[in-house]
Specification:
With about 300 residues, the protein is an alpha/beta fold. The chain is built from 10 helices and 9 strands. It has 2 domains: about 140 residues, Aspartate/ornithine carbamoyltransferase (Rossmann fold, 3-Layer(aba) Sandwich), CATH 3.40.50; about 150 residues, Aspartate/ornithine carbamoyltransferase (Rossmann fold). Helices cover about 35% and strands about 15% of the residues. Strands 7-6-5-8-9 form a 5-stranded parallel β-sheet, covered by helices on one side. A 4-stranded parallel β-sheet has the order 2-1-3-4, sandwiched between helices. β3, α4 and β4 form a beta-alpha-beta unit. The protein starts with 15 loop residues before the first helix and ends with a helix.
Length: about 300
């Protein structure tokens, strides 16, 4: 089993065994991500960060991951500063970027862009988010956070709350959780439920899924509450967004009936859907989740470029 030279476009590109391998490698990378150990395993390597959609955590954590391993990065952080603004096709852009580095990390507003990039690039392509489609590397971060919290990924009860229609993080995460036999409950504002095809895939992969109207009922015996923001930028009609804006908020009162072991996760940024009062409580896992993005992406870069990690 080797990930060397592989594209990571969808979480479905990875088997359970490969996910386990990445997570085990990520755990070994934590001291390197913290700066207490050093490595030059990516010395001489260049990772191209092609971000045609805004990003803070994903872009910077990939940048940090490359540098922590002794590599370097080239970054497009603003689509308006690239030749796409001049009318260049994504196809041509990717072919050009493949000559400049050893791997391409791509974020793009169009669903399917990463798959297209993988088809035309002779360098590995890692999908950092394609529209409302997939975000597989965030899913690996999420899985690492859950496993660190509970020591396992099997047999857990996970609640997905928020904009599940547009949220690419939950599309990828639901599929991955199904592989581990998780029981998934979804809670969302009207019209923003999980797409039927994603729910069907969860069942096909061996997971359980149930839609709940009440957050209080959904979290009563849950292990994880995974919260997502409303994806304002993906609403075609501002009036539709206005109807659901502020429709859910997680605070201490909302979790009164939950188990003591429940943890709250969020891929960030948050825009009011989690009250700051939770930040200092044992339930808050979202800032640890943000840190784990670095060792997880270190593991990915090491496995994809070298076939191994230090």
């Amino acid at each position: 089993m080797s990930l060397k030279g592989r594209d990571i476009v969808s979480i479905r590109d990875l088997s359970r065994e490969e996910i386990d391998e990445i997570l085990a490698a990520a755990r070994r990378m934590i001291p390197y991500a913290e700066g207490t150990r050093s490595s030059g395993s990516l010395s001489g390597r260049i990772v191209v960060l092609a971000f045609f959609e805004p990003s803070t955590r994903t872009r910077l954590s990939f940048d940090a991951a490359a540098q922590r391993l002794g590599g370097r990065s080239l970054t497009i952080a603003d689509a308006s500063e690239s030749s796409l603004r001049k009318g260049e096709s994504l196809n041509d852009t990717i072919r050009m970027l493949a000559h400049y580095g050893d791997a391409i990390v791509l974020r793009h507003p169009n669903e399917g862009a990463a798959r297209l990039a993988a088809m035309v690039s002779d360098r590995p392509v890692l999908n950092a988010g394609d529209g409302a489609g997939q975000h597989p590397t965030q899913t690996l971060v999420d899985l690492a956070t859950i496993r660190e919290s509970f020591g396992t990924l099997a047999g857990l009860r996970i609640v997905l709350l928020g904009d599940l229609r547009h949220g690419r993080t939950v599309h990828s995460l639901a599929r991955a959780l199904a592989i581990y036999g998780s029981a998934i409950r979804t809670v969302s504002p009207p019209g923003l439920s999980l797409p039927p095809e994603v729910a069907e895939q969860v069942v096909e992969l061996g997971g359980e899924i149930q839609e709940e109207a009440s957050l209080a009922k959904a979290v009563r015996d849950a292990d994880v509450l995974y919260v997502t923001r409303l994806q304002k930028e993906r609403f075609l009609d501002p009036a539709e967004y206005a109807q659901v804006a502020g429709s859910y908020r997680v605070d201490a009162a909302a979790l009164q009936g939950a188990r003591d072991r429940l943890v709250v996760m969020h891929p960030l940024p948050r825009t009011g859907e989690i009250a700051p009062e939770l930040d200092a409580t044992p339930r808050a896992a979202y800032f640890r989740q943000a840190f784990l993005a670095v060792p997880v992406r270190m593991a990915l870069l090491g496995l994809v470029l070298n076939g191994k990690v230090p």
